[in-house]
């Protein structure tokens, strides 16, 4: 997610201060982790530095002074260009669930249990999916309602895909463990005797042929 462009979009409605931007962001993306105030002000500082936003006013409104920011023409162009550029498909290999599984597989010597990691992650995914399914559906007929519905559907479909991957990973781990067990339990083949006596000792078949 590009925080710069999202801040620019939030500013399209008119000048806003950081406190308002933080809450507007969290309302737009209820399934995301709440935005930290520090991230808001750091993003605004970069936007001002790059000429994409500007400070236009300072108000107290009975509390601490807050600076209002507005999007510039350059910021509006930047936002529209970003929206017109297709997002690259997310690489699942970079997601935490995959990272943790890979790390666990490579850390077995240190006591890591990949099967436990997969089981715990599956439980967490199922819990989150139930929470989304039980939550109150968004109000229809509005941009915010449609946006919330689409975001929820994306989250549910993503969770479902992750769960299918977790099931495959568990099965692959079981198959690998069974293969390792079978390999280690098979007695080693007896090595041929390379001693001189072995090469010159007559075999049963050779003795029978001389009779």
Automatic annotation (TrEMBL):
Residues 178-211 are annotated as: Disordered. Residues 8-79 form the Transcription regulator PadR N-terminal domain. Pfam families: PadR. InterPro entries: Tscrpt_reg_PadR_N, WH-like_DNA-bd_sf, WH_DNA-bd_sf. PANTHER family: NEGATIVE TRANSCRIPTION REGULATOR PADR, TRANSCRIPTIONAL REGULATOR YQJI. This is PadR family transcriptional regulator. It comes from Quadrisphaera granulorum. The lineage of its organism: Bacteria, Bacillati, Actinomycetota, Actinomycetes, Kineosporiales.
């Amino acid at each position: 997610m590009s925080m710069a462009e999202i801040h620019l979009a939030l500013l399209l409605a008119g000048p806003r201060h950081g406190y308002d931007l933080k809450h507007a962001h969290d309302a737009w993306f209820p399934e995301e982790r709440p935005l930290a105030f520090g991230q808001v002000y750091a993003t605004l500082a970069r936007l001002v530095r790059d000429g994409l936003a500007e400070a236009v006013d300072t108000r107290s409104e009975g509390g601490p002074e807050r600076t209002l920011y507005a999007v510039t023409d350059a910021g509006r162009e930047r936002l529209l260009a970003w929206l017109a550029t297709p997002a690259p498909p997310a690489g699942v290999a970079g997601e935490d669930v995959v990272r943790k599984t890979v790390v666990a597989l490579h850390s077995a010597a240190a006591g890591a249990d990949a099967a436990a990691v997969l089981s715990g992650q599956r439980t967490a995914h199922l819990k989150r999916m139930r929470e989304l399914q039980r939550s109150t559906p968004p109000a229809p007929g509005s941009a915010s309602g449609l946006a919330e519905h689409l975001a929820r559907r994306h989250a549910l479909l993503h969770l479902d895909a992750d769960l299918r991957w977790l099931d495959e990973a568990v099965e692959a781990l079981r198959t690998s463990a069974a293969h390792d067990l079978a390999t280690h339990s098979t007695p080693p083949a007896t090595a041929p005797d390379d001693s001189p006596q072995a090469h010159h000792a007559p075999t049963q078949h050779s003795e029978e042929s001389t009779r």
